[in-house]
Every structure is written in structure tokens, then in C-alpha cells.
Amino acid sequence: MKKLNNAVIVLCAAILAAGCAKAKHQEGYKALTVNRGDIQLTVLATGNVQPHNELAIYPFTPGRIEKILVSEGDLVKKSQKLMELSSTERAILLDEAAAQGPKQLAHWKKLYAATPLLSPEDGQIIYLPTVPGQVVSTAVTLMVMSDHLMVNTQVDETDLAQIKQDQKATITLDAYPNQPFEGTVKRISYFSILVNNVTTYEVDVWPDIVPPHIKTGMTANVVFNTSKKENILVIPSEAIQQKNGQSGVLVPAAKKGAEPDFKPIQIGVSDGKQTEVVSGLKLGDKILIKDFSTSELGSAAGSNPFMPKMHGGGKH
After folding, report:
1. How far apart are CA 75 and CA 214, in angstroms?
2. Phi, psi of 311 (to 5 degrees)
3. What is the DSSP letter of 304?
């Protein structure tokens, strides 16, 4: 009976050892399934918010600002009254009338009205450096208007072929990173600019709806949506390896106990995170990638020769 028990123990130990060997073979890898998905290809660029057209408004005659009827950021219509101005003669006359009393001042204000400054176009007030009561010459900038704020970007010449007129893009301002908004390509420059020894071209992107918080000079990041492939076979880009100049992935070994097999594949487009599989794999196939889980790190730490060893409490 004792010999039979010993035989059972030996057999169980052999089975356990075989199981451990199989587990050891898989250790360090995790299995993933080939799935279908979409890949959106993009081009990234950085730029600044600028007016499409900028119009500085000057006084038509020397004099004094009586009233300012707009503020920075206001949207205005063509022929809308922006300011009331007094010529130098009117300003002197009103000052003399004010010295004679309120009735004289009111009389001359009614008789000699201020001259209105009207908006020349539809637009937005983006700069207003003047104040009521300020004496101005014809060289003083009263305000600056913009017809439409846009984002001017520089696109590398290697990416320019992917940018098209009226193409959609997503704009994110550094000042408001959590409030992206959509835009449209309105201009692709024919004139190149050398930036850090790289040939670039200006691309202007107009917001579809100008957000209220956008301001001239803000730094913007623009993502141009160039193309999209839908319902294609995709795998994580980190799973792709190179062997003898051939792209491929690791798959479970055909032979038990062996290392994973290298399977050549043909790859297509990639967005950096996912890569298209053109051939070599099919939907549902299993692939292996290195597993850097904390449990593996923990076991590695436990076998560190520099870690102190624990001793049993038996007799020496």
C-alpha cells in the first residue's frame, strides 16, 4: 500500500511539473484577438489665431472722443455707430460753453452735434486702445476690426498632399484645451516658408462657429481629418515585429512547450495606436504581445539576488 501511495505521488508530481512547464512557456505574453475597427488618419499642425482681414480705424479729423459705443470683442454691422467725435473746433466751443453753465452747454451740443464714426464693414472689434475724452490726431488708431478670426497654421510639405480645400479639421486652443471646435480649410498657400530648415506652407482654417472665448494671438493645435478606413482588421501597433525585413506578429506555438511562432503579415494604414492587417491574419485569430503586468514585475522583484532571503525556522 505504501508503494502505491509513493507511485501516485510521483505521478502527480510529473503532471504538476508538466503543467508548470506549459505555464512557463506562456509566461511573459498576453493573448489578444484580431478584431474589426476604424482608423482615422490625421495630420497635426500648430498655429495662431489671426484676423483674416484686419482694419485699423483712424479719425477723419483731429478732435476729441466724446462717446465710445462698443467694447472689445463686440460683433458689429456695417454702418453701425461706433463712436461720437468732436472736431477740434467743436471741442473748443463746448469747453467754452461749459464754462458759461449747463444751459449754454446743452444749447451748443444740440446746435452743433457730434460726428458719428460708423463701421465700414461687418466684423468684430479686436482692439480698442482709446477712451472717452481723449484728444486724437488723424494718426491715432481709434480701434481695430477683424472680419473673421481664423487659425493660421504651417503644414510640412510632406503632409501637404493630404490637405484639401474645404477639408474639415478640429481646433483646440492651448488656453481652452477641453473645448475643441470644428473648422474648415479656406486657404492653402502657394508660397513656401522655411521653418527650422523644414519647408512648410501656410494653411488657414476658419472656425465653423467662432467661439466667444477665442482671441487674436492664441496658440492653436489643429487636427486635419485626412481619410478614414472603416470596418477593417486591426491589431495594436505594439504587436507588430520585424524579422528579416518582414512585418509580423507572434502567435501561439503550434508545438506544445515551444516558444511563440512568428507569423508574417501585410500591414496597411496606421494611426500609431492601431494598424490595419491586409493579409496574414483573419478575424478572431489570437496574437501574443509582451506582458509587462505588475504581477510579472513583482515576481521578478522576488527573484532579485540583491533582495534579502527569508530563512526557515528549522534547526541548524
Report:
1. 13
2. -105, 150
3. -
**In which residue are the cell numbers 474645404 written?**
166
Between CA 82 and CA 132 the distance in angstroms is 12
| Contact status, residue 204 vs residue 185, Cβ threshold 8 Å | yes
DSSP string, 199-257: EEEEEEEEESS--TT--TT-EEEEEEEEEEEEEEEEEEGGG-EEETTEEEEEE--SSTT
In sign, the C-alpha dihedral spanning 175, 178, 179, 184 is positive
CA–CA separation, 297 and 304 (whole Å): 11
Residue 125 · residue 145 · CB < 8 Å: yes
Phi-psi map region of 111: left, alpha, beta (phi>0 left; psi -120 to 50 alpha): alpha
User: pLDDT-based confidence at 40, cuts 50/70/90?
Assistant: confident
Domain around 290: 26-39+231-297
Do 260 and 277 lie in one domain? The reply is yes
| Rounded Cα gap, residues 112 and 93, in angstroms | 9
As a whole number of angstroms, the distance between CA 19 and CA 8 comes to 17
**271-310 burial: b if 16+ Cβ within 10 Å, else e:** beebbbbeebbeeebebbbeeeeeeeeeeeeeeeeeeeee
Q: Do 80 and 196 belong to one domain?
A: no
Beta-carbon neighbour count of residue 65 at 10 Å? 22
245-293: pLDDT as tens digits: 999 999 998 888 788 999 999 999 888 899 999 999 999 999 999 887 6
3-state secondary structure of 107: helix
Rounded to an integer, what distance in angstroms lies between the CA atom of residue 222 and that of residue 181? 10
Tell whether 31 is covered by a domain: yes
Amino acid at residue number 28: G
Give a yes or no: residue 314 inside a domain. Answer: no
Alpha-carbon gap, residue 12 to 5, rounded angstroms? 11
